[in-house]
Amino acid sequence: MSKKNSIFNTKHSTSIKIAHSPDADDIFMYYAIKFGWVTTPAPFENIALDIETLNEAAIEGTYDVTAISFALYPKICEDFALLRTAVSFGEGYGPKLIKKRDKKLRRNFKVALSGRHTTNAMLFKIAFPEARIIYKNFLDIEKAVLDGEVDAGVLIHESILDFDESLEVECEIWDIWLELAKKELPLPLGGMAMRRSIPLTRAIAIEKALIKAVEVANTHRAMLAKMLLERDLVRIDAPTLDKYLDLYANDKSITMNDVQLEALDRLFQIGYEHNFYECPIQARDFMIPHEYMDSRG
After folding, report:
1. Residues 62 and 203 placed together within one structural domain of the fold
2. Of 19, 157, 161, 164, which has the fewest Cβ atoms less than 10 A away?
């Protein structure tokens, strides 16, 4: 069965707290607002935290708008609407399971993941049910493998582009996704969600401002990237930033298309089939209904 959108109530604060991860694509997509290039319906206050901290905060209902791992969404869908914008999908790429080059992994190998609620964690657990999992901040996973604390680790964000030469890729999460999806669909990784306690007209205005921010950032990519680098707001150099934005902050990040929505529905179905969710959901049922404003003329 499918749950439907609940009604947004009328209580709201004067400012809106927008939480996102500190990785380059989230910063890139948000900073068109931070630099004053986009008008917002209320003051936006941004908070940058690692993705699993944001996932846990979403479960607690901490922030008005927050980045989440897509795999978490069915668990918070009654309290948060799914936004159309600031999304990251992998197309032929994604998180990577890495290990030392001379390491042979046993069935119960010890692995470091970036969080229990991440998309890569759900897909990894399906593919490697006997692995012994520990969770770490994504910035610490490569070192844990190098130091021998774990046998392997799943790299995410910018880490997939540059890691120690003594390490090699054991498995691509993309390949696990293809096998489970049974169809070549983009891999849903991260998106945004908004508290349903925000009034509907205000929620629509906030989402439209975020859509505009991602659109403006993409249109003025070279200028914005230069500003981020000059202010040391990203952890990577210019060539790596350019490559990373090609992957995860592009014209397909502005608003989800039909293929991305199909991929998201397939992810939720896979999660349901493997007992991660109580019931399957359809992404479109949980989006903010912009047609409400159109009907008001």
Report:
1. yes
2. 164
For residue 205, the surrounding DSSP H or E stretch is helix 200-219
Would you give per-residue pLDDT tens digits along the chain (297 residues)?
Answer: 333 333 333 344 488 999 998 878 788 888 889 888 999 999 999 899 988 999 999 999 999 999 999 999 999 999 999 999 999 999 999 999 999 998 999 999 999 999 999 999 999 999 999 999 999 988 899 999 999 999 999 999 888 888 999 999 999 999 999 999 999 999 999 999 999 999 999 999 999 999 999 999 999 989 988 998 999 888 888 888 888 888 878 889 999 999 999 999 999 999 999 999 999 999 999 999 976 555 554
In a domain, 291, yes or no: yes
**109 & 196 share domain:** no
- Specify if 5 maps to a domain: no
Are residues 263 and 169 both part of a single domain? no
Domain extent, residue 242, equals: 16-90+187-295
- In the chain, DSSP assigns E strands to 16-20, 44-48, 65-69, 80-82, 88-90, 96-100, 110-113, 132-135, 152-155, 167-172, 187-195
Name the residues annotated as catalytic: 157
